[in-house]
Each structure stands twice: as structure tokens, then as C-alpha cells.
Amino acid sequence: LHVRSRRQRQMCIRDRLWAQYLQETTYTDESNYDQVTRTIPETHWSVMYKNVLKDLDEARIVIEATTYSTPELEALKPNKLVIIEILNVYAYANLVETFGDVPYTEALDIDNLLPVYDDAETIYKDLVSRLTAAISALDESNGSFGSADRIYGGDVALWKKFAASLKLRMGILMSDVDEAFAKTTVESAVATGVFTSNEDNASYTFLGSDPNTNPIHDNLILSGRRDFVAAATIIDVMNSLDDPRRPLYFTPTDDGTYKGGNIGETSSYSTYSHVSAQVEEATFPGILFDYAEVRFLLAEARARLFEVGGTAKEHYDAGITASILDWGGTAAEATTYLAQPTVDYDLAILASTATTPWKEVIGTQKWIALYNRGLEAWTSIRLLDYPLMTTPADAVSGFPARYTYPIIEQSLNGTNYSSAASAIGGDEAETKLFWDLN
Question: How much is the pLDDT for 147?
């Protein structure tokens, strides 16, 4: 077995801990928001810039420089380059959503070891412009990567839906800071054509053998360790709602009930529920984006009075149903679940005591649906402020509003680091990013 270091294994789990889907059994650093000694920011920064963005850039360079053997293969080049551009936007958006100001205009230049940090909002708006141009440039009458594409098998029409759905998400994230920009972005994305069913989901296909398995399989099975159990926060909410996804997300305990470990505390592996067998599977797909999330984003858009068609309730109901079906539940289970007063959109809105009730109602169900997608769940929690997270037993900070900058940046790129830290209001975990106003 290929057993990775605890640091490597924790990398794909940490945001599931912050979203309080999982809890650690022995080492409780991450669930107590310890970013510094666990080097969380440095790992994420390195992976995104070196292993994602730089590799995408090299792929672009190689494709542009290649003259293919037939006119048919040569004709695929434009779509290949546009798909790379879409993934570039996806990656840079992630960096902005996690850190704030980051290197952008001077990034990826190996001759510039001290890149400046660009303003996060300026980057984000430029990324939306790049995404809009990429959507327009895709040629659905032609192919792209074919079977080498482990997400869509080279289907350009699906990549166009993915790009439009990403534009929808990015527009929604801007809603509190620039409503006019957000509205235009969201409505344009919907007009282009976002996901319309679970068949559109952006799922990365893993293989059955290490090192090409789902990272969760690596963490929970190949590691030979028992480091994680279900978290009390999600288990308690799902229990209170009699959620039909419980056996799809988690295993029951010996007494047939679902129990989660207390946040920030050590938790006996034998006492609490664990991740379900299907999530542990080596080939369980990695989700970049799914239809359920799109419908929740559309529900948010309608709650904000953006013109995207339908009602907030219709999109909310569709998001819940899509999630239940995609996880292996039934339409009857979805109908029964939606009929509960605590889930029914209109009744839940009336019962909410939140300042903005729709944020609590949509935010809670969106969070449940985003299970096993920690980064997206963390971003949703920060934007909507729901559901409320439990304060960890030994928290070293408040709920993290961002990743702090990597220590290596402070050491090697100190001048630009200091300018960026000052510009965002301080390099602290609790410093809210430009889009996180409420």
C-alpha cells in the first residue's frame, strides 16, 4: 500500500472538517482551525499554483506549439485551448475565494520569483470576463480532448454548460459587494445555458488502483488509519430532519443510529458513524460541480430578485431532489422529505428567526447537499452565514473567513506579502474577503 504522510492525507479532508461534515479521532488540529502549524495554506497554495495552474499553462504551450498529423486533429486545438482557459478561471477563482489578493498578472513566470499580489475583486471580475470570452469561443460542432478528458469525455456542449454554471456561481458570490455586476453576470450565465440535470454533473473519473484512486479512498482506506468519524454538526441536523441521505453519507453505529463526534474533541472511532462505503470506494467520482448546486444557486438568485426564471421555492425543491437522486435515493423519498414543515420552503421561511430567512433556509439545505465537497461548502457558509457552525473545543481562531498566506511567502516575498496583507485588512484567519460582507 502507498501510505502518504499525514500532511498529504489531511489536505483533502481539512475543508470537510471546517464545514463540520467530519471530525478527527485523535489529532484535532484542523478541526480546531489550526492553519499555521498544519501548514494548510502553504500546501493549498503550492498545489494550486504549481500542480494545477502551471501544468495547465504548460499544456497550453505544448498544444499551441504542436502541428497535428491530420486536419481533423488540428481542428480540435481551439476547443482544447478554451477548455484549458475555463479550468484556469476555475483555479484562480478558488485562490481568490480562499486567500483574497493573490499573484495573478505576474504569476507563473519562472523568471519572476517575487510576483506582486493583485487586488482580489479586480482579479475576480477579470476572470468573469475571461470566462465569458471562453464560453463564446467554444465550438460545439467540433470535438476536443476525446477520451483523454476524464470529466466530460471531450463533450464541448457539456464544457459550455460547465463554464456557464461556473459563471453563475461567481456572479452569486459577488451579490453582496456589487449587486449590479452580480445580476448581469448571473442572468447572462443562465441565458447561455447552465446545468439542467444530474447528467450534466462535472465528475472526475478515478481509477481502482493507487495512486489514481479517489483521495478519500487514500485517506480512509489505503492509509490504514482511522482518523475520521462523522461530525456532530451535520449528523444532528440530518437526524432532526429525518434526512434520507444519512445512510448514503454515513454508516449507522452498532445500535442502528447515527452519531457524530463533538467538534474539536478527540472522538472514539468505534463510537461514532463513519463515512459510507460508497464514499470510500476507490472509484467514487470527484465532483467539481453538480446540478444540485446550480439549482441552489438559482434559488439564491431568485431570492435576490435576479431574473433567472422560476421561483426560489421551485429551484430549492429541485436542488434537494437532485441531491437525493444523485446520491442514490428515490423520488418518493425526496417528496416525503420536502413535505416536512422543517424542510418545506415556505413554512421554513415563516419559522426562521434569521435576519434574512432565505439565507438560513437555502443555506442549510445547500450545505447538506454539498457534503463531501468541503471547499464549496466552506464558501457557501461564508457567503450565506448559514448553517451556524459549532465552536470547536480548542479553537485557535474564530471561524476561518480565509486561508492565511503561506509562511514561505512571508519569508521569500516579504514586501509583496506585506502589501497584500495590509490591503485586505490583515493576514488573519478572521479577515473577511471582499465578497464576504455580511
Answer: 94
Per the structure block, which three cell numbers stand in for 182?
Answer: 452580480
Q: Tell me the C-alpha distance between 117 and 125, whole Å.
A: 15
Per DSSP (E only), the strands in 290-432 are none
C-alpha cell read off for 406:
503561506
Residue 410, classed as helix, strand or coil, is: helix
Please check whether residue 252 is in contact with residue 273, taking contact to mean a CB–CB distance below 8 angstroms.
yes
pLDDT (0 to 100) of residue 93? 98
Whether omega for the bond prior to residue 211 falls within 30 degrees of 0, making it cis, is yes
DSSP 8-state secondary structure symbol assigned to residue 316: H
CB atoms within 10 A of CB 362: 27
The strand ranges marked E within 3-91 are 22-24
Low-confidence ranges of the chain (pLDDT < 50): 1-10
User: pLDDT tens for residues 343-391?
Assistant: 999 999 999 999 999 999 999 999 999 999 999 999 999 999 999 999 9
pLDDT digits (tens, 9 = 90+) for 181-237: 999 999 999 999 999 999 999 999 899 988 889 988 988 888 888 899 999 999 999
- Give the DSSP H or E segment for 97: helix 77-99
| DSSP per residue, 374-428 | HHHHHHHHHHH--SPPPPPTT-SSSS-SSPPPPHHHHHHSHHHHHHHHHHHT-S-
pTM: 0.95
The three cell numbers of residue 207 are 481509477
- What 3-state DSSP class applies to 69? coil
| Alpha carbons 133 and 129: distance in angstroms, whole number | 6
How far apart, in whole angstroms, are the C-alpha atoms of residue 246 and residue 243? 6
Cβ contact 182:175 at 8 Å: yes
CA 216 and chain centroid, separation: 15
Q: What is the largest CA-CA distance in the chain?
A: 65
36, 163, 193, 265 from 136: Cα distances, Å: 42, 10, 12, 50
**Closest to 230 measured CA to CA, from 372, 333, 397:** 372
